[in-house]
Fold this sequence. Notes:
Elements: H1 9-12, E1 25-27, E2 30-31, E3 38-39, H2 42-47, E4 48-54, E5 58-61, H3 65-71, E6 80-87, E7 93-96, E8 101-103, E9 114-115, E10 119-129, E11 141-146, E12 150-151
Parallel strand pairs: 1-4, 2-4, 3-5, 4-6, 5-7, 8-11
Antiparallel strand pairs: 6-10, 7-9, 10-11, 10-12
Amino acid sequence: MAAANDTTVSQTYPRFQSLTYPNTTVGLPVVTTATTPVTMTVAQLLGGLLAVDCQDAGTLTTPTAALINAAIPGVAVGCSFEVDVINYGDTTLTIGLGTGVTKVTIATVAAVMTIVTLASKRFRFVCTGVASEAVVGSTDTWNVYAFGSTAAAVA
């Protein structure tokens, strides 16, 4: 039985009512020499997709680990999310890291935190620490893994 056009899958099939479907919100920051470094908002980072117009060589910095943790209800060590960053600008974009966010290097391969013009890169953020008043010395921390660049399609 097909679902009617004016209903959702969860309305037609009750067993799907408990599923949560992710939403992607496209962030559109502009980076120029006059504005660099630009700090992305937590909403942009968690939106899953950043289409950046890097007009001059510049840096787009992640929010701090504390801000990321504050924005995610029930955050715990091991939580993760991904964000794709596309550089539509005419120069290389550098991704900077906010306080408490660390890039992960594996063996001798360093994570490159730059994106050339007309290319994209996927980043996975993994929570490695949650500050707690009950645990002395605990801090908010995240690791970020950078996956390879992908050239943008040219029409």
